[in-house]
């Protein structure tokens, strides 16, 4: 039986309503003179009050204590969880690639386990994003986090996560992603008590992720709205010595708390966390020829102020049939105005024969040339073009309109592959003016 806390409300962008105790949600109004069960009403906004209806996001929380019952915030020392602007770090035009982040040897929770690879834009201007990897071997037990700078997109690579949030709990194994809205208080724990967990995080400083338009694809396809899952209300009623960590303008602050802030008994609204099983993605691709642009694989897009030009897109390369006729089937050689940070959840990626391994990452910045490695090119030119199933593969890309600055700690990391560009240097001229 699924535990009552791990049930889900479905639908992307819906106005949800949920209560952990019967009648806890006020009926017909948000702010009654006295709330049921002696709860406090608190509005939690994700957009300006006056944002157009189709973008407007807010939830109403009915909680045991209002969020203002907290101690004074003090600035914490810097950690490897960095932020934009990565001033002083150049936008490096070299293709870059890394092995997985090592699992820490000392106890390390989600906050301590975040290691920043790249960032663009800036949180105080609400533009751009930052890309981090986490490697953790401990749960957040007595501390809680909120990120005022960003919405967090989490892509686990190994180890199942339990995201305990104010609005309820999300179980997020590898193969799923989860999105935590800007400002929500939460804890990251491992769903299985022991062992480590690895994954990727996109801190989206801009407007919230939404589903891409479908255009001529029609009313269905790609990530279907009904497959997005939001938690049901579930609350702690515990007192003790706790800590609330706040992420604000790229720095961490800590305030003491005498109770768990996950004390929301009922809520309604649309500024919510959610998870999505990436195997539900309805992959659409060519059934004739050529390799379409990877925008057909967009799961979520965070728009910028220029239509069609994302602050950041979340794109996946899932298991799929590859059937293009008389075509070079893997990704082509290219130079892209958008900047591409890639990760691999499992299996292998069709543009790279080796070196890009699960838990690894790559960065190809604005206009940096990249594409299939020499071995992948050679085999794709020779392979018989029977229908082929790419079955063991789940790569993804955070693709942004803003070039990424790569952190010094990532550029100098021992797990960086300094010789990455060698994968292309075997591509010799095969030009023969006599052979059309
Ligand atoms: O560089 C990459 O591997 C990502 C990518 C994949 C693809 O199919 C087309 C373009 C692209 O940038
Ligand atoms: Fe690319």
DSSP strand count: 28
Q: What proportion of the residues is helical, as a percent range? A: under 10%
The parts where pLDDT drops under 50 for at least 5 residues are none
End-to-end separation in angstroms reads 65 Å
Structural class, by secondary structure, is mainly beta
Q: Name the beta content range.
A: 35-45%
Major sheet summary line: 9 strands, antiparallel
CATH superfamily of the domain at 281-420: Jelly Rolls
Q: Which small molecules are bound?
A: 2-(3,6-dihydroxyphenyl)acetic acid, fe (ii) ion
Please write the CATH class name of the domain at 281-420: Mainly Beta
Q: How is the largest sheet built, in terms of strand order?
A: 1-16-20-13-10-15-8-7-28
How many DSSP helices?
4
Give the overall silhouette: globular
**Which radius of gyration do the C-alpha atoms yield?**
23 Å
Short description:
With 436 residues, the protein is mostly beta strands.
Task: Provide a descriptive summary of the structure in words.
With 436 residues, this protein is mainly β. The protein has a domain at 281-420: Jelly Rolls (Sandwich). It has helices spanning 110-113, 374-382, 408-411, 422-425; strands at residues 8-10, 16-19, 40-45, 58-63, 74-75, 96-98, 114-119, 129-136, 143-147, 151-158, 161-165, 168-172, 176-180, 186-190, 197-204, 228-231, 239-248, 251-259, 264-269, 274-277, 298-303, 310-317, 320-322, 339-347, 361-364, 388-390, 393-400, 405-406. Strands 1-16-20-13-10-15-8-7-28 form a 9-stranded antiparallel β-sheet. The longest helix has 9 residues, at 374-382. The radius of gyration is 23 Å and the shape is globular. The chain starts with 7 loop residues before the first strand and ends in an 11-residue tail after the last helix.
